[in-house]
Amino acid sequence: MQEQKIKLQRKIKKLEMELKEIGPIMRGSIVELKMKCGNKKCKCNKDKKYKHPAKYFSANINKKTKLIYLGDKRIDLAKKYNDNYLKLWDIINQMTETNMELLKFI
Length: 106
What we know:
By secondary structure, this protein is α+β, with helices and mostly antiparallel strands. Helices cover 50% and strands 22% of the residues. The chain has a domain at 72-106. It contains 3 helices and 3 strands. The model has no long low-confidence stretch (mean pLDDT 94).
């Protein structure tokens, strides 16, 4: 029983170290919206089916959807921040499960 407790405590310490390594986080999604530009000579004004693809980061903040244009240069960074958010949630879930087991020893 004591060995199990020590094992769980070590797991918590490991997860705490992983938490320290997580960088910037953003909760949301990378989305692609299709839209027309304003150029009258552009294909999007001549062809009704064609629209320009544009990448945005979307997040629900205070019950409102917020969008930020990413363009090509910010997509990788936004993905990294979102991946960090997913890692954070994974660690939180593991810590919750482990701490629930540890509570049994108190």
